[in-house]
């Protein structure tokens, strides 16, 4: 998916279910590539594949995508590409985890069986038919900020709670079920689980909300889409946009996401500008009075302290001498 923009940075959202026999070793290789090419973000490496959101200069992101695609295991990886005026992350973290999205459904392999993929325009045509239900498989804080018109939402705080909540959907087994999430990854296992539980006509929005906004104009997606980078929330709907979230303090319509200024609380909530200033960035009087409350500058976003951050931390396989050369910008072929 290509984008045309004058902004110098790209933000990449992607995942790929593919067997990795040596995930810890590959994690180190992947991490080092990111460091050497100034890629920042959060990447999960697992035995079942990889999942990431990263940012970098356009040319660096192009190198990164080429690096992923050059590996036969990940050649099918699809990138959702957005543009930005700066890095969307301050650090690079590449971690090994048992799953690329925590689902409690490790026995399911989307490469074997999953819901039918619908491209954005196909989803758009199908979503309003009489025998169709739209199912949001994301968590509360995500669908409270934005969701498709008439979508069914589940009261879950984490995706791992999804299997238990499916019991509430038994009456929909005779319907076409269209699942969706931010970028598509949760739907891979959510739709597979629905099929396992006896749902027969199950679909998923390929590329998720992000791709739907880019390719189908975002029509009937109400509110904003919560994203897992420093932007926090992004516009999706260019056709009939609306606001569905309400200020946590006063209840007025607001899609302005704020981190509570009390670091102990640190909740991510919609808070209007007026209430933001009145509570000095806090979500309640109690949080406003917390002695450790952070200074509020009107944005409600607090940059994490990166003092002492070492992007090479955890890389043990490269000789220390070689790492030191790379840290100081030197190599065996350096002209410096």
Automatic annotation (TrEMBL):
<keyword id="KW-0560">Oxidoreductase</keyword>
<dbReference type="InterPro" id="IPR036873">
    <property type="entry name" value="Rhodanese-like_dom_sf"/>
</dbReference>
<protein>
    <recommendedName>
        <fullName>tRNA uridine(34) hydroxylase</fullName>
        <ecNumber>1.14.-.-</ecNumber>
    </recommendedName>
</protein>
<dbReference type="InterPro" id="IPR040503">
    <property type="entry name" value="TRHO_N"/>
</dbReference>
<dbReference type="InterPro" id="IPR020936">
    <property type="entry name" value="TrhO"/>
</dbReference>
<keyword id="KW-0819">tRNA processing</keyword>
<dbReference type="GO" id="GO:0006400">
    <property type="term" value="P:tRNA modification"/>
</dbReference>
<dbReference type="InterPro" id="IPR001763">
    <property type="entry name" value="Rhodanese-like_dom"/>
</dbReference>
<dbReference type="Pfam" id="PF00581">
    <property type="entry name" value="Rhodanese"/>
</dbReference>
<feature type="region of interest" description="Disordered">
    <location>
        <begin position="298"/>
        <end position="336"/>
    </location>
</feature>
<dbReference type="Pfam" id="PF17773">
    <property type="entry name" value="UPF0176_N"/>
</dbReference>
<dbReference type="InterPro" id="IPR022111">
    <property type="entry name" value="Rhodanese_C"/>
</dbReference>
<comment type="similarity">
    <text>Belongs to the TrhO family.</text>
</comment>
<feature type="domain" description="Rhodanese">
    <location>
        <begin position="128"/>
        <end position="221"/>
    </location>
</feature>
<comment type="function">
    <text>Catalyzes oxygen-dependent 5-hydroxyuridine (ho5U) modification at position 34 in tRNAs.</text>
</comment>
<dbReference type="GO" id="GO:0016705">
    <property type="term" value="F:oxidoreductase activity, acting on paired donors, with incorporation or reduction of molecular oxygen"/>
</dbReference>
<dbReference type="Pfam" id="PF12368">
    <property type="entry name" value="Rhodanese_C"/>
</dbReference>
<feature type="compositionally biased region" description="Basic and acidic residues">
    <location>
        <begin position="317"/>
        <end position="336"/>
    </location>
</feature>
């Amino acid at each position: 998916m290509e984008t045309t923009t004058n902004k110098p940075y790209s933000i990449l959202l992607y995942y790929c279910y593919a067997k990795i026999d040596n995930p810890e070793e590959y994690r180190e290789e992947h991490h080092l590539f990111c460091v050497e090419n100034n890629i920042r973000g959060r990447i999960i490496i697992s035995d079942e594949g990889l999942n990431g959101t990263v940012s970098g200069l356009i040319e660096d992101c192009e190198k990164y995508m080429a690096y992923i695609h050059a590996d036969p295991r990940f050649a099918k990886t699809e990138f959702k590409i957005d543009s930005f005026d700066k890095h969307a992350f301050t650090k690079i973290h590449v971690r090994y985890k048992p799953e690329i999205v925590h689902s409690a459904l490790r026995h399911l392999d989307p490469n074997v069986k999953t819901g039918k993929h619908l491209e954005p325009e196909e989803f758009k045509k199908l979503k309003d038919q009489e025998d169709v239900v739209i199912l949001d498989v994301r968590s509360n804080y995500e669908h409270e900020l934005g969701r498709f018109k008439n979508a069914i939402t589940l009261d879950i705080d984490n995706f791992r709670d999804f299997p238990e909540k499916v019991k509430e959907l038994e009456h929909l087994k005779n319907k076409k079920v269209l699942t969706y999430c931010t970028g598509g990854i949760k739907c891979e296992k959510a739709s597979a689980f629905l099929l396992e539980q006896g749902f027969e006509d199950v679909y998923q929005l390929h590329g998720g909300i992000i791709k739907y906004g880019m390719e189908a104009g975002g029509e009937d997606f109400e509110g904003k889409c919560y994203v897992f980078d420093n932007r926090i929330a992004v516009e999706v709907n260019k056709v009939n946009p609306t606001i569905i979230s309400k200020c946590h303090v006063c209840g007025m319509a607001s899609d302005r996401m704020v981190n509570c200024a009390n670091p102990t609380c640190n909740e991510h909530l919609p808070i209007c500008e007026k209430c933001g200033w009145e509570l000095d960035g806090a979500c309640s009087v109690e949080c406003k009075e917390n002695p450790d409350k952070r200074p509020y500058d009107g944005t409600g976003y607090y940059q994490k302290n990166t003092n002492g951050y070492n992007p090479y931390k955890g890389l043990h396989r490269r000789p220390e001498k070689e790492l030191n050369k790379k840290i100081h910008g030197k190599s065996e072929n350096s002209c410096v």
